[in-house]
Amino acid sequence: MGTNSWKGHVNGILYGIQFDRALDDTVVTRVADGVTGGLYPGDRAEMLEALAHALRHPGPLNDQIETHHSEESIRTFLNQLSAALTTPSPC
Fold this sequence. Notes:
Number of strands: 0
Structural class: mainly alpha
Distance between the termini: 30 Å
Largest sheet: none
């Protein structure tokens, strides 16, 4: 997955969370549900791949979609989102 591809996925997530005051479990669940529900481009596997690339990226993740969240809180959130997407949802 190229930089532009994973960055597009991350930017979509950042756009969706830019007005959230805190990146808590509720936001993680909302975004994970949005990914599995088709509200974000790609499927769960594609998003997980994009998140893995993003979390390995040494540079800033909010350089195109700026939010009031710190780089550290964004990375923590993306880790939590990745874990939520990895865990099978109950049927």
